[in-house]
Design brief:
About 0% of the residues lie in helices and about 55% in strands. By secondary structure, the chain is mostly beta strands. The strands form two sheets. Strands 2, 4, 5, 6, 9, 10 and 11 form a seven-stranded mixed β-sheet that branches. A four-stranded antiparallel β-sheet has the order 1-3-8-7, with no helix packed on it.
């Protein structure tokens, strides 16, 4: 099990950028695939991006492809989500998720608000 803490959210104008960070505890973090999800009140949580344990493979939702970049630094137990060309529809709470075998851990989330 790992503990995950997100940071970097905030208020930004459309077209702007934000960089979210996910700090993880635990010596085995490098074994986990890590993803970012987002949720708007009243809607289901949706997949945004995922990076595999080594950082060698990344996956994106079609809605963010070409605008968001996920990366990780296993030496620092960190995962990042660089978000560029933000749109009002990107407004949501963003959650970090770590998976390994049967383990599926979530952070508390960070709010991202994009004004038009």
């Amino acid at each position: 099990q790992v503990q995950l803490v997100e940071s970097g959210g905030g208020l930004v104008q459309a077209g702007g950028s934000l960089r979210l960070s996910c700090a993880a505890s635990g010596r085995t973090f490098r074994n986990y695939d890590v993803g970012w999800y987002r949720q708007v009140p009243g809607k289901e949580r949706e997949f945004v991006a995922r990076v595999n344990w080594s950082g060698g493979s990344t996956y994106y939702a079609d809605s963010v492809k070409g605008r968001f970049t996920i990366s990780r630094d296993n030496a620092k137990n960190m995962v990042y989500l660089q978000m560029n060309s933000l749109k009002p529809e990107d407004t949501a709470i963003y959650y970090c998720n770590a998976r390994y075998v049967t383990i599926n851990d979530w952070g508390q989330g960070t709010q991202v608000t994009v004004s038009s």
